[in-house]
Amino acid sequence: MSVKSVQFAVAAHIMAAPGYFWLRQHQRRHSFQRESVPAYRDGSAAVAALRLIAAEVAQSRGAYAEALAGYRQAALRATEDVENALMEVAQTQVRLEELQGEVTLTRGRDLSERAYKAGAIPLTDVLNADSQLLVARNDVESTRADAARAAVRTFRALGGGWDVRSNPSIAAVK
């Protein structure tokens, strides 16, 4: 095989390679000189160019793999945020249902007040019933606030914002 036919075969092989057009652009942009890829009669210039292309491809694959890993990590973090927010909503709803026993405390407080007025029990028993009722009401309101905050966190974790002006019913609460 002559040198010209080897060079033609190498050139045809390079044109079929995925990085050929990159090499052409690289030659134009960076004035790709013979010094950067030495030309030899046996076609080793083409081999050197292919090695440069292979290195670029490997680098771009590495960058792609890194970007994909970052995306997957962000997706896992977002899924975790949504799951945590939904669990918090569910837990606060369960706690709120448990605290609805406030009705019995209200009734017990009313009964203790009647008994006090009738002279059957001392004032300290009425005050203890009042204290228990206030603690229960405080717990209920605190849990309702936690439920509202959990709902907002869920909404945000799902990708929404929280704009008070866009919801007239919330804006009226202000």
Query: Which residue ranges are poorly predicted, with pLDDT under 50 across at least 5 consecutive positions?
Result: 30-35
Cα-to-Cα separation, first versus last residue: 88 Å
Tell me the Rg in angstroms. 38 Å
Number of helices: 6
Could you tell me the mean pLDDT? Answer: 76
* Overall shape: rod-shaped
Number of domains: 1
What composes the largest sheet? none
Percent of sequence in beta strands: under 5%
Going by helix content, strand content and strand pairing, the class is: mainly alpha
**Helical content class:** over 70%
The SSE order reads HHHHHH
DSSP E strands, number:
0
Question: Which helices and strands occur, and which strands form pairs?
Answer:
Blueprint: H1 3-16, H2 20-29, H3 44-98, H4 102-118, H5 123-157, H6 168-173
Helix pairs in contact: 3-5, 4-5
Keyphrases for this structure?
174 residues, rod-shaped, mainly alpha
Please describe what this structure looks like.
The chain is mainly α and 174 residues long. The chain has one domain (3-173). Helices cover 79% and strands 0% of the residues. It has six helices and no strands. The chain has helices at 3-16, 20-29, 44-98, 102-118, 123-157, 168-173. Helix 3 packs antiparallel against helix 5 (123-157) and helix 4 (102-118) packs antiparallel against helix 5. It is rod-shaped, with a radius of gyration of 38 Å. The protein starts with a helix and ends with a helix. The model is unreliable at 30-35 (pLDDT under 50).
